[in-house]
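**Protein record**
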Amino acid sequence: MPTSRALLLSSVVLLATSVACTTAGGVSLRSDGSPGSQECPEKALEAMRYLKLHVGDAALVELDANQMRSRRITLYDGEIESVLMRDLGPLETTTRLYGQVWTSGPQAVVRYYKAHPPDGDEVPICAVARLSEDQMRKRPESKSGTAILDGSMASAVVVNAFR
C-alpha cells in the first residue's frame, strides 16, 4: 500500500475508533420484510469524506466471501462478508466489506456498514449492493430467510443514506 494511502487510512481509523458499527437492530422493516430507510452515521459520512468516497462511487464485489465465483449463490438473513474485486477509491481490491442482508422482500437487500482494507483497520462506510435489471431478485425456489441469486457478483455503491 503506498505511504499516502496508509497515512490516509490511519487518519480515518483514528477518527472512527469511537464509532460502534451500525447494526440491523435499529432498522425498521417495510410490510414486505425489506428494510426501511436508515440514515448513514455521521462518523461514516466523515470517514467517507476523508477517503474521498462520493455518492455513486462503485466497484465490483463478490457478494459472499464463502461463495466466490459461484454461478448461483444463496444469501441468508443476517451478517455478510463481501470482497472488493476492484479498487473503490483508496479501498484496494480484496478489501472486505461487512454488512447486513435482508431476504424477506422480493429481492435481496445488502447494506454495508464497514470496510476492512488488507493492510489497515476497519473504517465505517455506507454502501449497498446493486445490480441492474432485477438481478438481486430472488429465485422462486428461495426458502424463507434465504435468497438464491444467479451469480455471485454485484456492485458496491457508496450512499449517504439507505433508502
About this structure: The radius of gyration is 15 Å. The mean pLDDT is 88. The CA atoms of residues 52 and 89 lie 7 Å apart. The longest helix spans residues 3-16.
